[in-house]
Amino acid sequence: MIIANWKCNGSKQMISTWFAEFIESYAPKDGSYIGIAPPMIYLEYIKRIVAEKSLKIKVGTQDLDVSNGARTGAISAEMILDYECSFSIVGHSERMQYFNEKNSAIKEKIHKLINVATPILCVGETYEENQNNLTEEVISEQLRVFEGLNFKNKIVVAYEPVWAIGTGMTPSKQEINEIHKFIKDVVQSSSVNSLIPSVLYGGSVNEENCENIFKSEFVDGALIGGASLDGSSFAKIVMSFNGSYK
Ligand code: PGA
């Protein structure tokens, strides 16, 4: 599963160029799950292009709100269902940093989303927490949003060390693998029906470093910010994941 998180980037012009470049570089191969989480305002535009070009790309949202009604600027789980979005990112560290989002709200969002679309829960430690060997403790706490839930559908966790997002720095392949295994074990033992999540890596993934990251046993894909804004780079990353680009 390779997901593009476009954050607050894009324009109609950028999207046209993106698809032209993506199609030029991409050799389709079945079995890859490709998703784009664009700014909400471009969802319809992207869905139309994906249908016109017969691409197997899913669209999803970057976030959702805890309920509907008088909540200016928000979108609800009901709307995600209505619009047939495949997934929603939840709990991205930028939501915590700039929108003051707390774990309690993330838990409510996961609960709303659970039978609607695949939640992609972002977890990860800050640089300071990493240096103080608190990574597993911090992630365990973040994963508590899944406690007691009975999942019918697939769930996904994205391990995104805060210090690796947009910085060009990444943990070592071994560190990524260890944390991914840890995440799988924690979720399996805390969810009611012992579901093992897919775990994506996110944080400065690009076409140069992705192959090495994808070789890790417990890496099930990637959540990509900066490098996903270029259709050609994104295509190469997907193909590296599929084993069809060297
Ligand atoms: P990045 O962002 O790839 O630009 O580091 C990843 C993310 O924030 O999801």
Features:
alpha/beta, binds 2-phosphoglycolic acid, 246 residues, single chain, 10 helices
What do these coordinates show?
The protein has 246 residues and is α/β, with parallel strands linked by helices. Helices cover 39% and strands 14% of the residues. Helix 1 runs parallel beside helix 10 and helix 7 runs parallel beside helix 8. The structure holds 2-phosphoglycolic acid (PGA). The site of 2-phosphoglycolic acid has 13 residues, from strand 8.
Quick gist of this model?
This protein has ten helices and eight strands. It has 246 residues and is of the alpha/beta class. The structure holds 2-phosphoglycolic acid.
Main beta sheet, described?
A: 8 strands, parallel, barrel
Give the SSE string: EHEHEHEHHEHHEHEHEH
DSSP summary, beta strand count = 8
Assembly state (oligomeric): single chain
Strand content: 5-15%
**Gyration radius, rounded:** 17 Å
Mean pLDDT across the residues is 93
